Backbone:
């Protein structure tokens, strides 16, 4: 994926449904083998695009675009990267690292990594601090995560 096709911008309210869809696609496409089908199916719980509208309104989310189409996003708050998702077809292209760079630049140093993403974050320099269950937002079945710190 040529770098000149990629751009970043702050998320806008009209990105909420796209961000919702990217999250669902990323979970379905990248978490198999690490989580049970029931966990994947129930991961989003009662979330709707409205959940993402509220996050976007906090002005901490950045989206990544390829040819003006949103393909991933990062959301961060002081001290923590709270969400980073890319479309499955963008995984391994460097987009996730660039989004993580943006999230870390916003001062986050902790995150909850999914089991399937632990190696990605480890390559970036994060280290495992412990394990637990997903704690952000509305969720369905408990999801095992890795607590990591930069």
Residues:
């Amino acid at each position: 994926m040529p770098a000149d096709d990629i751009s970043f911008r702050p998320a806008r309210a009209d990105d909420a449904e796209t961000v919702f869809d990217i999250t669902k696609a990323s979970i379905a496409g990248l978490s198999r083998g690490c989580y049970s089908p029931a966990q994947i199916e129930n991961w989003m719980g009662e979330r709707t695009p409205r959940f993402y509208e509220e996050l976007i309104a906090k002005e901490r989310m950045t989206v990544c675009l390829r040819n003006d189409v949103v393909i991933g996003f990062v959301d961060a708050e002081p001290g923590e990267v709270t969400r980073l998702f890319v479309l499955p077809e963008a995984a391994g292209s460097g987009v996730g690292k660039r989004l993580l760079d943006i999230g870390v630049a916003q001062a986050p140093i902790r995150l909850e990594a999914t089991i399937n993403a632990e190696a990605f974050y480890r390559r970036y320099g994060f280290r495992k601090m412990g394990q637990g269950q997903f704690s952000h937002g509305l969720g369905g079945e408990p999801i095992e995560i890795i607590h990591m710190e930069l």
Q: What stands out?
A: The first strand starts at residue 6 and ends at 10.
